[in-house]
Amino acid sequence: MLTPELLHALHNLPLAARQAAEGFLAGHHLSRRRGPGMEFSQYRPYQPGDDLRQLDWRLAARSDRYYLRESEVDTSLTVHLLLDASASMNHRDDNGLTKLDYARLLLAALAYLAQQQGDAVSLSVLHPAGLVHLPARADARQLPRIYQTLQNTTGTGRFPEAARLAPLLARRQRALTVCVSDLYEEQGEIQQLLTRLRAVAGEVLVLHLMAGNELHFTYRGAVTFQDLESGQTLQLNADDQRPGYQQQLQEWLRTTAHAARRQGFDYHQLTTTEPLDGALREFLRRRQATSL
Question: Is 4-27+76-291 assigned to CATH 3.40.50.410?
Fold first, then answer.
């Protein structure tokens, strides 16, 4: 099993996504959407970026025109990927990965997996400077767009204000929304966004990302902590504070999970130290349930 550290060390997001998603390409469901399936349905003209494996070379030789053989494939789901790119996602774990590093790997793998399933995929990056949004597409050029956007994303500031996220709520298309976030918020702004998205688009899968060192509080002795979003600092003795910290953290995690499920979200907690397979399985499970 490839660890997130090894995937990150590749310094090649498309390759890392493909490696991570291998072995999870299952669970197709039937639809009437055209694509590179098994049963031939019709021809359409070639467009730049199309998969050349679907080109009908015999027809091209006879007519000097390029057409793709289209079929009816197992698809018809829109997958909407959300990335929390606030500054708290810059928190670095003991394995050297930040939450944002892990989130990039995970979302790239999910995008690859969704496209292999024939799904249309969109990506929205949420940060205070504004919303970066790639509309849902199922063509061969969408994955490179998603990879490039993820690679260019940096964590900064606080979670964006509701007014900046309004375009996400304007669409009324049925979708499976997958949000990767550490769920650090001031006044429930992340939960409010996901609640509204569930109302307009359907199912929401929340992948709650924690760093291993904050989950297990691996710090020792005198430590100075800094809030990555506000810049405030706090000096304390980690050994003295560990029992109280862990108790409060577990209470917060229970409350967060309960609130998410009460709102009708699928909730899954993961850490930056674990392989991506748990989140990928959760995605496929939710995808299959959504398509029924």
Answer: yes
